[in-house]
Amino acid sequence: MIHYKSKEEIELMRESSLLVSKTLAEVAKIIRPGISTLELDQFAEKFILDNKALPSFKGYQDFPYACCISVNDAVVHGFPTKDVLKDGDIVSVDVGVFKNGFHGDSAYTFAVGTVSNEVKQLLRVTKESLYKGIEKAIHGNRVGDIAYAVQQHTEKEYGYGVVRELVGHGLGRKLHEDPQVPNYGKRGTGAKLKEGMVIAIEPMINLGTKNVFHDKDGWTIRTEDGKPAAHYEHNICIRRGKADILSSFEEIEAAEKANPNLCSDY
After folding, report:
1. Other beta carbons less than 10 A from residue 50's beta carbon
2. Which is nearest to 90 in space by CA: 62, 117, 119, 61?
3. CB of 161 within 8 A of CB of 174?
């Protein structure tokens, strides 16, 4: 069942989504070689709690952390650990918050130190594909139009692997609602997009094969060939004519540029 949101509910969701964005921006300020992903997770959780919200992921289906932090060949759902980041790592940080009865859910991939041009291109193209999907997230279109736009840009134009097993989703009082929003598919197919729907669009794109597997921790999803993956996610309210992006990368990108330990020229 798809839950349509009122104007008031959408503004509450915007508040939740922007808090996620601010959390990611705060994390961007401290990412560096030598810091552990567990430290990043604990820092993010404290920031969320200090802003009178709860981390959506902690306890969700028994997930034990506030963030999913996925490094290099980990696509999504990575466990924060005591392992420290190294120069050349790419790090996807996926965060959710629950505030005023609604969830926000956003993700951003950071490049630590010096990374190859190949990896820079993966990050740039994956982020571009998110916005190409958002362009199609308007009243009257269908979910397949978003999926096709993402797949066309990443798989058809660059030969990247588009993960099939994991998808974007509706968002609201529950962290995952209908409809599912894949990153691959045919135009004109899937659920019809209508004003008042709120969805999370989140391309998960692999440098190599689309195939993935579950790590032994039962959560972390890794690429089958060990090549890196990128992941970006925005919360979108469906409108007539143009999508309304409830989350924001503005503060995250500013923090990324200001942090000398991060590569932002991709």
Report:
1. 8
2. 119
3. no
> Per-residue pLDDT tens for 221-253?
999 999 999 999 999 999 999 999 999 999 999
Q: What is the pLDDT of residue 113?
A: 96
* Strand order across the 221-223 sheet: 74-76, 221-223, 212-214
Residue in 168, 10, 25 with CA at minimum distance from that of residue 100: 10
Q: What is the DSSP string of 173-203?
A: SSSSEEEEE-SS--TT-SSBP-TT-EEEE--
Q: So what's the pLDDT on residue 91?
A: 98
Ramachandran sector of residue 190 (left: φ over 0; alpha: ψ -120 to 50; beta: rest): left
CATH topology for 7-263 is Creatine Amidinohydrolase (3.90.230)
Show the tokens assigned to 86: 């190294």
Residue 56 main-chain phi, psi, to 5 deg: -65, -35
In this prediction, residue 243 carries a pLDDT of 98
Closest CA to 139 of 195, 196, 199: 195
Strand-pair partners of 102: 99
Whether the model pTM is above 0.90: yes
- Domain ranges for the chain: 7-263
pLDDT per residue as tens digits for the range 73-115: 999 999 999 999 999 999 999 999 999 999 999 999 999 999 9
Helices 7-30 and 250-258: crossing angle, nearest 10°?
Answer: 10
